[in-house]
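Worked example

This section walks through a single chain of length 300. The input is the sequence exactly as stored; nothing has been trimmed or padded.
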Amino acid sequence: MLEGWDISQTESLLHRIEAYKEKRQEENRQRREAEQNKLEGQIETAKKEYETKQKQLNTAYCELNKRILEHDLASASGFDRPELTLQAIHDAELDLEVIKMDTEKAKEKLSQARLKLREQQKQNVDGDLDDNLPGVKVMIRELDEVLMRDVGNKIKDSGKWPFIIDTSGQAAIFLRYRDTNMLNALRPVDMEPETIRMALLGAIRFGKPFIIDMMEVDMFDVCVDRFDEIQKGLMDALLDKSLLEGEKFMSLTKETDGAEYQPTRHFMVDNFKFFFITSNSYPNDGLLNRTYPIRIILPK
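Given that input, the structure is written out below as tokens.
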């Protein structure tokens, strides 16, 4: 049976199959490129709209300040129709509020366009070594949208706290200069139980991110032990968010904490966030499974 088989037919068939594969790959590449170009075009359009609204917002603020100055000067000079200048101020305030809303809409439109591009890029695996590493890949310039504002509600929908993996260290710098309570797990003074307790309570009280930077060392188990010194199972309660339910966090307070932390005060729980940061490329698997990993990538 094999004696009558023409090997040239097999070679021809293989060539056709290979040509077909290459054609499909090229078509897919062109399709992805077209999709990316389209999304980049949408981003550029949204960016221009946002920049235009920013200019209008600046103009509106200037106009309001002018009207206020005119009113002050008129009042000082004895102008007997102050209701006219006051009305001009009210009109300028109304214009400003309208522009503010339009600017916010333009900003959200730009954020959503960037989100679509990020999601599209994630689907286009290009064979880099980092593609097999855990974590949603995010550029450092996108960190505000992804982490702080959670555009698209990806973090919220996961039900987990973010775990930022950043070998460059830029995310830690970015967060250090925000309004956060940030502790370094390698600094003994930061890992004192009382320091941790007050940093955590303060973040819940004032609705700020509570951040633990583990740098390049796997300090998770150490952190768990330190948290246990404050309250047994505290890290688990924080990670699964049960600490925030029914004001259970109030069990962390002491009478000596002062008036700001007493039950009569309003704790801004809804604005509270908890992040881990590491510069270790291969962090603790247990922590990865219990968090929403975000891997910072640098532009090539």
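What to look for: Residues 125-129 have pLDDT under 50 and may be disordered.
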